Amino acid sequence: MNININYEDPSFQNDTYEQVIEQVCQEAALVYGLGPNAEISVLLCHNEYIHELNKQYRQIDRPTDVLSFALNEGEDDGYDGPDAALLGDIVISLEKVQEQAEEYGHSFERELAYLTIHGMLHILGYDHMEPDDKAEMRKEEEFILHRLGYVRQGEEL
């Protein structure tokens, strides 16, 4: 899987962020059978930037933590299988990563990993609008995070 990581602000560039994102995306590629040509782009940004995207594309006038833009969005089955190349884009607010890591009492890296897999699952067709869908998506998120050792404080592997 090819992972393109970009920064809205060049000062955000950080090897640790890239390692976390790469690790999560590669694990998702392994678990969900994404082929070697699969490609995802991840943009790390400020709250202000994601706020504008959230307002423009979702008509929600506030910053959010993560947005996903699947290139196959609107198609019945979502992800097109292992031969699909361009999957879509994930946008993550680094300010929200920090806020939420503090709020939930875990590391910045664990929150970044969580938002990355959350975005990936949206790209792959998962959603959380209905309680059953939310439970299924949450199970998948935790499955990937546990495989990588990103557990909540007090949880065991």
From TrEMBL:
Pfam families noted in UniProt: YbeY
GO process terms (BP): rRNA processing
Catalytic activity, EC: 3.1.-.-
Top-level taxon of the source organism: Bacteria
Family annotation (InterPro entries): MetalPrtase_cat_dom_sf_prd, YbeY, YbeY_CS
Cofactor remark: Binds 1 zinc ion.
Broad enzyme group: hydrolase
Cell division recorded as keyword: no
Keyword annotations of the record: Cytoplasm, Endonuclease, Hydrolase, Metal-binding, Nuclease, Ribosome biogenesis, rRNA processing, Zinc
Cofactor(s) needed for function: Zn(2+)
Keyword Zinc: yes
GO cellular component: cytoplasm
Protein residues bound to Zn(2+): 118, 122, 128
GO MF annotation terms: metalloendopeptidase activity; RNA endonuclease activity; zinc ion binding
Subcellular location: Cytoplasm
Function: Single strand-specific metallo-endoribonuclease involved in late-stage 70S ribosome quality control and in maturation of the 3' terminus of the 16S rRNA.
Entries under HAMAP family matching the protein: Endoribonucl_YbeY (MF_00009)
Family: Belongs to the endoribonuclease YbeY family.
NCBIfam families for this protein: rRNA maturation RNase YbeY
Protein name as catalogued: Endoribonuclease YbeY
Species of provenance: Megasphaera stantonii
Gene, per the UniProt record: ybeY
